[in-house]
Amino acid sequence: MGCTRDAILDALENLTADEFKKFKMKLLSVPLREGYGRIPRGTLLPMDAVDLTDKLVSYYLEAYGAELTVLVLCNMGMQEVAEQLQETLRKGDTHPGPSSSPLPPPAPALHFVDQHRAALIARVTDVDGVLDALYGKVLTEEQYQAVRAERTNPTKMRTLFSFAPAWNLTCKDLLLQALRDTQPYLVADLEQS
Questions:
Q1: How far is CA 80 from CA 21, 74, 150, in A?
Q2: Is 126 buried (19+), middle (13-18) or exposed (0-12) by CB count in 10 A?
Q3: Lower CB density within 10 Å: C or N end of the chain?
Q4: Does an H or E element contain 65, and which?
Q5: Tens of pLDDT along 138-173?
Q6: Which residues contact 73 (CB under 8 A, 6 or more apart)?
């Protein structure tokens, strides 16, 4: 699992200071897959290579984080570094075997919001901020109003989760991004648990 993270870190550490700064600026504007949000500019700019690697993996998971790193490097005109990263990832996928294939386990695994449902119900304090981020993308007007009508944050979250069985992966990713934006410390704490 750490093989991809290490490959991303190696690629970033091989950039000059100016190239690394340019990488972070490009990362702010590169097109993202649907359902993924941007790392906030204020968080991103002061990061060093280790912190940025951790943030890429926590925001986008290892596989997409590596793909995004390659894309940004290519957009910077650094095809050689991008190709080196891709080659390292290919070697990592075939050499160690099952321990380096992070893609199969996440498929049957629960999504973050499903895995931490109880903690999110109990601990989310800015439910209205989450609702605003989901309104029109995941929630209809009726669903939005039904959640807002509840009196306490835990009952609001329970009502919000009552709509989750009809959601696809993109909807759950949007909820996770809304939680990252409004409750970053809570999400970080749950990701570490």
A1: 18, 9, 55
A2: middle
A3: C
A4: helix 49-75
A5: 899 999 999 999 999 999 999 999 988 888 888 888
A6: 11, 23, 79, 81, 82, 85
Whether residue 11 contacts residue 84, with contact meaning beta carbons closer than 8 Å, is answered with yes
- The torsion defined by the Cα of 167, 106, 1 and 41, in degrees rounded to 10, comes to -10
Q: How far apart are CA 152 and CA 159, in angstroms?
A: 11
Amino acid at 4: T
Contact 43, 55 (CB under 8 A): yes
For residue 139, what are the contacts with CB-CB under 8 A and spacing of at least 6?
131, 147, 163
Quick check: 133 and 147 in contact, CB under 8 A? no
Q: What's the mean pLDDT when you consider all of the chain?
A: 85
H/E element, 115 = helix 112-115
This prediction's pTM: 0.48
